[in-house]
Amino acid sequence: MRRVISLYLPTWPTDRLRRLNGEAARCSTSAGPPVERPLVTRMHDGRRQVLAAANRAALALGLRPGMALAHAQAMVPDLQVAEADPEGDADALVDLAAWCLRWSPLTAPAAPEGLWIDATGCTHLHGGEEAMLAAILGRLERAGINARAALADTPGAAWALARYSARPITIVPPDAHADAVALLPVSALRLEDDTVQALRRLGIDLVGQLVSMPRAPLARRFGSELLRRLDQALGREAEPLTPVVPPEAVQQHLAFPEPLLTATALEIAIERLVATVCPLLEQVGLGARRLDLVFERVDDAVQVVRAGTARPTRHAAHLARLLRERLEGVDPGFGVASMRLVVTLAEPLMPTQATAALDGKENGEVDLAPLVDRLASRFGESRVFSLLPVESDVPERAVRPAPPLAPLTAAIWRKDWRRPVRLLTPPQPVEALSALPDHPPAIFTWRRIRHRVRRADGPERIAGEWWRRDGEVAAVRDYWAVEDEDGHRFWLFRRGDGADPATGDLSWFLHGLF
User: Which of 60, 170, 245, 358 has the fewest CB within 10 Å, making it most exposed?
Assistant: First the structure.
């Protein structure tokens, strides 16, 4: 199901000006940190100078876009005024949409003060829908950009809720967008002002009223645009987004004389695109880290698949294989009219000397990057990682996850410590029978199964890290590696040294499996 985010930037032009020249919009006071000064932009409406945009400080003083500039200066004598730059604002909005490509492969500007992000199939990569929206707004706020966000099944519903909802973040459950927009004003349908005023004169103020009215009289009275916007908001008519493509990105476009419908045809097109893009990357000394493949269908709908690599690469066969594995989620509809391959993230990749290879090895090493990329593409990037050692005696703190091909650091694995290949998080309590203070358990019960210990090695005493928290000042663990009668090996520890009660309560835990 399609899920679309609409970002509304209510003070976008003034936010951009403040970022370009922060001193013009802020002033210092002896009583505290710098505060925002009223800032507006002006334009000529054909008769007079009027306000084009205002920042939050100006809006709080009662200034509004469309107000006469002379009136605004009379209300706020120290008002900061800048010349409106619609073209510059639009170009900066496109750049901001390109920045949002980190969240989804399909983003587009919604001029003059908004952005689209098609989040279909992307929210789980960022912790869910709510976490993704909070992260986006947080990044924008730290960049000095005020924003509101809404997530719905259709671009029209998301656009309306981002601008007319009372909450800064609005998430509409799937298939609930019709009810969500029913109580919004008709201006939320992106209609012309004349149409909105005509509807209000007829007593039609809410979107829900339009839904319940006969369509034919509405079309005769107001034209087809009203019904089109209504159908787009309700999901009755598709509304494709034109994705933004960074101008500096390496890309290649391929149009077809006849629409493609089969997976085989799409795979052949992918190979042709990759074979063209890889030489372009080689010319500029770059390797692909992230690729977006855009499918433009004959019905103007756009679908995008994304593939990533663990390290920069220009290996055409490998990149084509990664993209082919993503075709399962592509619906060609009535046919794909064209395809575009964009390298949205690239890193320097210098040429290397080709050397003789034996059994797929070069210089005694095997390149694991293709395997890592295929595993990440199939199971998810979060499921493929490596472990690096950390200088800590506590077992659960002695390792940390890292990217699968992260370079080795100065830390070295301790070879004199025998550790199980699997640690249980958290350690699981067991019932054990043992003689104190330095004897291993003779019998222990884990998950209702009794294990009789045949051999044991230990104890290995590990003290708490007293510099972390007070509870670890006296804490002690005594670890035993034990083997039961069936040959299964376990890593158990007892909490406490058996003499001082402050070191632990003498309870037993299973921490790992050999």
Answer: 358
